[in-house]
Amino acid sequence: MTQTVSRPSESSGVARNAPLPLDVEAIRADFPILTRTVRDGKRLVYLDSGATSQKPRQVLDAERWFYENVNAAPHRGAHQLAEEATGAYEAARATIGGFIGAPEQEIVFTRNTTEAINLVAYALSNAATAKEPEFRTYAVGQGDEIVVTEMEHHANLVPWQQLCERTGATLRWLGLTDDGRLELSNLDTVINERTKLVAITQQSNILGTINPLGDIVARAHEVGALVLVDGAQSVPHQPVDVTELGADFLVFSGHKMLGPTGVGVLWGKYDVLDKLPPFLTGGSMIEVVRMEGSTFAAPPQRFEAGVPMSAQVIGLAAAVEYLQALGMDAVEAHEKALTGYALEKLAEIPGVTVIGPPDTVARGGAVSFTVEDIHPHDVGQVLDDHGIAVRVGHHCAWPVVRRYGVPATTRATFYVHTGYDDIDALADGIRAAQKFFGTV
Amino acid sequence: MTQTVSRPSESSGVARNAPLPLDVEAIRADFPILTRTVRDGKRLVYLDSGATSQKPRQVLDAERWFYENVNAAPHRGAHQLAEEATGAYEAARATIGGFIGAPEQEIVFTRNTTEAINLVAYALSNAATAKEPEFRTYAVGQGDEIVVTEMEHHANLVPWQQLCERTGATLRWLGLTDDGRLELSNLDTVINERTKLVAITQQSNILGTINPLGDIVARAHEVGALVLVDGAQSVPHQPVDVTELGADFLVFSGHKMLGPTGVGVLWGKYDVLDKLPPFLTGGSMIEVVRMEGSTFAAPPQRFEAGVPMSAQVIGLAAAVEYLQALGMDAVEAHEKALTGYALEKLAEIPGVTVIGPPDTVARGGAVSFTVEDIHPHDVGQVLDDHGIAVRVGHHCAWPVVRRYGVPATTRATFYVHTGYDDIDALADGIRAAQKFFGTV
Amino acid sequence: MQLENMYQEIILDHYKNPHGRGLREPFEAEVHHVNPTCGDEVTLRLHLEGDTIADVSYEGMGCSISQASVSAMYDLVLGKTVPQALEAGEHFMTLMQAKGDPSVAEKLEDELEDAVAFAGVSKYPARIKCALMSWMALKDASARAWGGPA
Amino acid sequence: MQLENMYQEIILDHYKNPHGRGLREPFEAEVHHVNPTCGDEVTLRLHLEGDTIADVSYEGMGCSISQASVSAMYDLVLGKTVPQALEAGEHFMTLMQAKGDPSVAEKLEDELEDAVAFAGVSKYPARIKCALMSWMALKDASARAWGGPA
Ligand SMILES: Cc1ncc(COP(=O)(O)O)c(C=O)c1O
Ligand SMILES: Cc1ncc(COP(=O)(O)O)c(C=O)c1O
Ligand code: FES
Ligand code: FES
């Protein structure tokens, strides 16, 4: 595939890298929203896929197909629609499981990454009060420790703070180095015999850092702790296979990987899921219900209470198929090329500082930066005025900005429809902001 | 409006009631799925709206409009798309609040009714361990009691069983009379000074019963208990106004009221919501986050963690507008007419017993029945073969079938596109089942 | 009408006149299984003489498919050794996964006898559990009553 | 370019040369407000002489809009009575809800002085909180320092 849509920007001293692995022009044609303009007719330069991704036509069509043809409550009802809805829902589970190398019975659907993490956190406190002995296996209580890192998204930090509040356990964390990496020198003391669970992101949503999970998983399992990997920023952007990961849980969101809003995934090792008590309870997750008490179904049903987000699950399977057709290796290579280019372009602009690893080694495509003497939100405002959508603020990772002594950052994130032209626009926009605020 | 689509069925001795309040033919044209056929070319007679409703084109279009034009993460980002997405999301909140007479800040979006109920149940146990004094107001613990009824859906029963398991509180319940009503003679002893919360359905999903909430709310508030009303089967089918209801919480599901899957609503009195600790934690529901601990936003944001099901919220607002255009009084009258007709038609068939109130007084359109000597699932199978979609089983209200000494029931439920012809088809289908199994 | 496809005459016969119904003594294992989607249940007792199934007695409520299935199973496994019965169970499972493919039923005709009539059920995913409930109970009871070849 | 619409010259001037910045003594109330979406914060002290605002001193970090807003507020409320200042706050809130409607700004020109320059901000929902942060802090501080007319 060749990349024709972007031409070298005149103003740039940086040579364009090799042609991009993905055919950006062809891909853009699949995304209806990219044809709209913003701020008085400007082309939409969407560099906020890290917050939520745009959706290709194929995903929207799959959802609509479900509603217009087979909509019914899965696993409830004996009529043809219910059969077809159940079939589509379970086929989607298999597709999505296949994407991360997991059998379907290890895939639990949630609203988003946040709910998936909360599910595990609540299951561990519920384990402490469960009446079924087998559900007490992973109970967390006083004296136990939960380990996170200082680079976690609030979704992978606050639920563990709350678990500790509910149970009396203690939260510990791995710190950060100045160049945006995990501080691993004290790994063996932070993760120790008291550790019950280690929750860690695979790719930081603010620094772009890709973490060395192998060492951490090994240490955690050495002391008998469970490992939850936050894949919200990795699963959409690189090949992830749970059999290679070695973790016990992996969580991610559909809306960040071209899928619909309102659907996320918890993957768990079957043997671990099987020993966890339920989180949300209600219809479809039970075995027998009496007024006096209830028993529960096997995973994954045990963790899917109520009528599910069926159409969104079908849409997510379509997103997975879209990504598989591109090839996750190609997606990863594409973003790596863009990231390298972006880091070079930003390095050219005086006063711009990237927060996070300075090169593309073990680094994904979240590029956070500050511009000297201009507040990140003001940078974002000028970019917006140029049609460029970025995110500003603490990016739901407040401890990270605090760690690096900045109030906030401006962040650009890339995806399959991002081309060199988008990054040129970003660089030009930053220069325009500097001119506007008179800092150059 | 006149009803032309159904002609009197020759075989019926029951005179058709007055013309139906809604123009069924016009409404059917809005539902793409109703044009499909099932089981070798039979017209789809969808009598399973109680499990999940079908969606009019207007709802699907609204969702698609969101994705194709303004998709972005609400409340996160300073660009035009994020602004427009936030605007659409909050406007939808106001529309949905307006539908039940509530201000927008009292509307919390959840996945479905089930999650909304779990949210309240977990908030009450979290209150017991919260470090913030104001969050301890509604703490539930040993010696406290939670009251439900024997007619609750599993979604409004199991979460309270689990709350009791977590906290040591005791579950009590109001029983049922032989004709499908609440047994209220012992109301004042079941709801007493120890009661912390009463959770009760407004309309039974299996019996059709509409409960006399006024008396129950009054008694609950007399003893200082909170009241949660399960509106999953009432909000879609009758006008509901929270100011008249007098309860503290109302919960319902979008997918049962013409809206998308994956979105539900928790309404709560602001002063009550404000004193509840969070349930799901993560992004967008925080005030300040530090590694050492976090503080939380005001309601409704406090209860909406992570990137929400934005498109589904927009779709639900479109569903609400669709229902408002029909008029909820008309919807209610329409279903009452259908229910009366169905009860008469079923009464004509020897061997058919309706489980639930025998007439339309304080009764909604869920008609559950058994057919002598034919298992409900076998009845459902024959109906399915005729293109008629009903639900069979315990309908996630297992204690109810146990109470009435039947293994299960077959259930027909109605909605805005249901006409007399659908009910004629049902009656004919039941007769066919009797013939097929040789019981007549 | 596709109904006759599922409700074969043989199935309706077993449903109306179940073979071996009732709970009897002696027995080495008793199990109770529930189908959580419909609430139907079966209680099943297994009596062995050595490796051989000397009696399978049962009680329960359920739909025509589940009731007919346990009756046909009774006929099929009585007098067989436990391994033979478990093998028949495997065949029945294969039949249930056939999605109505007639060639699968044809191949299993000898092994499954009357139970091959359930082939049509495999086209109705919601009913497969009905047909399997008693076979699951038998497997469970076998595991409890019988330690396997020593 | 719509940018100039929001970033009026007056706003940029206040941002670059903030009036009244710094924390001073004496004061009757000190409050700390945070904007949770961006992490920006302001610490604000209020000093009253009778009903009259004798000093508003402040420190904090934030975007141009928030910094300019607190500076313009300082100019506007100094020497006013607390009820007058709260009224000005109400006017400013009205301006922020105007969605860029110029007629609203016109009507409030006398009451809001420099602060009317923030009219353009009301077209950018994500920035309204920036402009309001200091006004919220002032309201909070007033409630603490001042019991209202006795
Ligand atoms: C009365 C009642 N409550 C609660 C529920 C649960 O709704 P959901 O599955 O959408 O959470 C249902 C329907 O399934 C219901 O009918
Ligand atoms: C690393 C990471 N974890 C978790 C989340 C939370 O995802 P969601 O909001 O979809 O639950 C995000 C994104 O918001 C993220 O970037
Ligand atoms: S419907 Fe319950 S076993 Fe068949
Ligand atoms: S961006 Fe933080 S106050 Fe404006």
TrEMBL record, chains A, B:
Organism: Blastococcus haudaquaticus
Keyword set, alphabetical order: Lyase, Pyridoxal phosphate, Transferase
Protein name from the UniProt record: cysteine desulfurase
Cofactors, names only: pyridoxal 5'-phosphate
Catalytic activity entry: (sulfur carrier)-H + L-cysteine = (sulfur carrier)-SH + L-alanine
Superkingdom of origin: Bacteria
Residue stretches making up the Aminotransferase class V domain: 45-426
GO terms under biological process: cysteine metabolic process
Family according to the record: Belongs to the class-V pyridoxal-phosphate-dependent aminotransferase family. Csd subfamily.
EC number(s) recorded for this UniProt protein: 2.8.1.7
Gene Ontology molecular function: any one: lyase activity
One Pfam family named in its UniProt record: Aminotran_5
SUPFAM superfamilies: PLP-dependent transferases
PANTHER family hit by this protein: CYSTEINE DESULFURASE, CYSTEINE DESULFURASE 1, CHLOROPLASTIC
Automatic annotation (TrEMBL), chains C, D:
A GO BP annotation: iron-sulfur cluster assembly
A family per Pfam: NifU_N
InterPro entries in UniProt: NIF_FeS_clus_asmbl_NifU_N (IPR002871)
Domain NIF system FeS cluster assembly NifU N-terminal: 6-130
One of the record's GO molecular function terms: iron ion binding
Similarity comment: family membership: Belongs to the NifU family.
Family annotation (PANTHER family): IRON-SULFUR CLUSTER ASSEMBLY ENZYME NIFU HOMOLOG
Record protein name field: Nitrogen fixation protein NifU
